[in-house]
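Fold it.
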Amino acid sequence: MPKKEIKNNKDKTSFMKSFKAELKKVIWPTPKQLFNNTVAVLVIVVITAIIVFALDFTFESINKYGIDKIKQQVSNSTSNGKSVSNEIEETNQNTAEDSHETNIQTNEASNTVE
């Protein structure tokens, strides 16, 4: 068993050595670069938030003044005691009655001519 412990210890030490070597290769930003990058990120976040807010306000307004008004008009027409389909049926009946009366008048006129 002592061989495995030695091997594990070597693995740990070699890992730490490689880890330190990799960290030495990293190019860390200067304080000025860090500040500039932070400001750039914050500006982009603020611009994105403004765009999202504007789109949200626009779509909310469209919904409030567009779709909701249409819903309100439909509900008003159905709450008046007549639904849209009833109004269409009445219009069709009135048209059929007018057409029938016109046919009767035409027939009477043709009978009087004969």
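Residues 31-79 form the longest helix (49 residues).
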